[in-house]
Amino acid sequence: MSYNLLKGKRGIIFGALDENSIAWKTAETVHAEGGKFVLTNAPIAMRMGSIKELAEKTGSEIIPADATNVEDLENLVDKATEVLGGKIDFVLHSIGMSVNVRKGNHYTNMNYDFTTKGWDVSAVSFHKTMQVLYKKDAMNEWGSIVALSYMAAQRVFPDYNDMADNKAYLESIARSFGYFFGKDKKVRVNTISQSPTPTTAGQGVKGFDGFISFAEKMSPLGNATAQECAEYTVTMFSDYTKKVTLQNLFHDGGFSNTGVSQEVMEAFIKDEE
């Protein structure tokens, strides 16, 4: 069921790779709610994924851009405003990558060149994107910028590795840049801390299935799906959340505020018996 929440709104969606990705589900949901957008991803990611299928389905153009490259981002914003016929109302930053995770490097034995690369892709790219939007005055007033995060920014998940640091930095950028974007342009900036979700990126983390089943047992409402995250993101893009900014919003079925659940307690009691 759609409500035309984004009728007449224009945006940029980063990071749609395949139908498992939250960005992909968000694009489909934005389209259903009447929003128009351009899709963007790094050229290498576009070769791996099936973004052209999504573009056809949603009547969207694809503008390739390396989000760590300011010139690419400038080109993206210029072309997006041209294609969409005006300033931008919403942006989704759904990008994350750790070379250390991919290479199997333990957190206590990191390759720092890999660390820098992952940090640039996963977090600094968010600052670069917003800086380009800000300098070009490319956002409409009351626009909304959202980046996707994870609970490991606040708590230890040993195998999440340096992605935890990247997400903590990402959330800090949202607050710091969000202050200036709000003050100067009336644009809101937030992060959504989503349940562990079986996306292509998420499944690269060691023990990810364990994360998912533990969170499911801990969360009173169970894990939030990629589709549910897409729907929540759409509410953040809509005019119904005009005064929400500088927030890290937990979308995790209550996991973030649950100390222990009955199911987890029962599992430990069984072990003791």
TrEMBL record:
EC class name: oxidoreductase
Reactions accelerated catalytically: a 2,3-saturated acyl-[ACP] + NAD(+) = a (2E)-enoyl-[ACP] + NADH + H(+)
GO biological process, one term: fatty acid biosynthetic process
InterPro entries (UniProt xref): Enoyl-ACP_Rdtase_NADH (IPR014358), NAD(P)-bd_dom_sf (IPR036291), SDR_fam (IPR002347)
Functional pathway: Lipid metabolism; fatty acid biosynthesis
Catalytic site: Y150 (proton acceptor), Y160 (proton acceptor)
Keyword terms, alphabetized: Fatty acid biosynthesis, Fatty acid metabolism, Lipid biosynthesis, Lipid metabolism, NAD, Oxidoreductase
KW Transferase (keyword) present: no
EC number: 1.3.1.9
Taxonomic classification: Bacteria, Pseudomonadati, Bacteroidota, Flavobacteriia, Flavobacteriales
Highest taxon above the source species: Bacteria
Record protein name field: Enoyl-[acyl-carrier-protein] reductase [NADH]
Protein family according to the UniProt entry: Belongs to the short-chain dehydrogenases/reductases (SDR) family. FabI subfamily.
GO MF annotation list: enoyl-[acyl-carrier-protein] reductase (NADH) activity
